Amino acid sequence: MTSSSESIDRSRLWWAAIKLPLYSVAVMPIWLGTAVAIAKTGRGHWWPFGLFLTAAVLILAWLNLSNDVFDAETGIDRHKYHSVVNLTGKKQLIFWLSNLCLLLGLLGIAAISWLQQDGTVLGLVLLCCALGYSYQGPPFRLGYLGLGEPICFICFGPLAIAAAYYSQVQTFSASIWPVAILNGLTTTLILFCSHFHQVADDLAAGKRSPVVRLGTARSAQLVYGACGLFYGVLVASVLWGLLPWPTLLALSSLPWAIYLCQRMAQFHSVPEQIKNSKFIAVQLHFWSSLLLGLGYLL
Ligand SMILES: C/C(=C\COP(=O)(O)OP(=O)(O)O)CCC[C@H](C)CCC[C@H](C)CCCC(C)C
Ligand SMILES: O=C(O)C1=CC(=O)c2ccccc2C1=O
């Protein structure tokens, strides 16, 4: 291979390692919690929004860098050339870099709690981080038992959205439930789809992800079920008056859902064809959550 094609390959691997589009999973709960708060109170507070957004991105960087470190320890990422640990060969450095991201992220959240003289937001985010650690870190590694998806739903659904809402208005409200369920569902779908192409490596490392447990064919049917549930909850919530009707804008994300379902149904057992399916799910998550929040503000 020539040195220029080697460097193109390397930059491709770095791009895959950074996973930039995935960072929308950190942004959307803050956007949604804030949008519901603005719709309810008529005003938004921009400093907790900005601080929370920055902190959430740093926490997601911690989650992903430490995931590469912990996965390097179990050997499950042997064939994952875009693992930051495999790319740099510096596990200790990445470990400390991930801890620095976590520390800075938590300092941002602590600043919100300190300025509001109320530890609730910090408590909720600490709980998310503890659950995030339990997904991948020793001695728990709950993701290896197939518990990643429920943890993901709880963290990116009710917990993160309640924390973002609380950071705006310093009270809780049952009105966050529909957006918490909808954002939790699409974020969890991203994680679920990310497991299809990894079945062989997961089996070899003893990781019983939901896709390993169910098999790829039944898992592909579950993708249909999850999308159906998402649009069912959306429409039912609008009909019951739990969501304002402009949130039906989120129905415009339907083409991404159809594309995802069809691709999973056709290629569920062909890793090469579905290795990027999580990024289709990211598009579904991004557009549906963006439009849900916009629907609240209109
Ligand atoms: C790191 C995650 C998935 C990667 O999984 P896997 O090891 O299977 O994949 P690769 O090695 O191939 O990349 C995501 C796991 C999510 C976790 C279950 C829940 C995390 C909670 C967060 C800490 C919540 C942060 C909320 C924020 C908005 C304040
Ligand atoms: O690398 C991944 O596959 C994921 C990383 C990540 O941070 C995340 C967060 C929320 C849901 C899914 C995922 C991933 O799949």
From TrEMBL:
Keywords: Cell inner membrane, Cell membrane, Membrane, Transferase, Transmembrane, Transmembrane helix
Summary of the function given for this chain in its UniProt record: Involved in the synthesis of phylloquinone (vitamin K1). Catalyzes the transfer of a prenyl chain to 2-carboxy-1,4-naphthoquinone.
GO molecular function, one term: prenyltransferase activity
Pathway: Cofactor biosynthesis; phylloquinone biosynthesis
Lineage: Bacteria, Bacillati, Cyanobacteriota, Cyanophyceae, Acaryochloridales
Gene assigned in the entry: menA
HAMAP family, A to Z: MenA_2
Family indicated by similarity: Belongs to the MenA family. Type 2 subfamily.
Catalysed reactions, semicolon-separated: 2-carboxy-1,4-naphthoquinone + phytyl diphosphate + H(+) = demethylphylloquinone + CO2 + diphosphate
Keyword Nucleus: no
GO CC terms: plasma membrane
Enzyme class, broadest EC rank: transferase
Pfam families xrefs: UbiA
EC identifiers of the protein: 2.5.1.130
Entry membrane topology: Multi-pass membrane protein
Subcellular location: Cell inner membrane; Membrane
GO biological process, alphabetically ordered: menaquinone biosynthetic process; phylloquinone biosynthetic process
Transmembrane segments: 20-39, 46-65, 93-112, 119-136, 142-166, 222-242
Protein name in the entry: 2-carboxy-1,4-naphthoquinone phytyltransferase
Organism: Thermosynechococcus vestitus (strain NIES-2133 / IAM M-273 / BP-1)
Claim: Transmembrane is one of the keywords in the record: yes
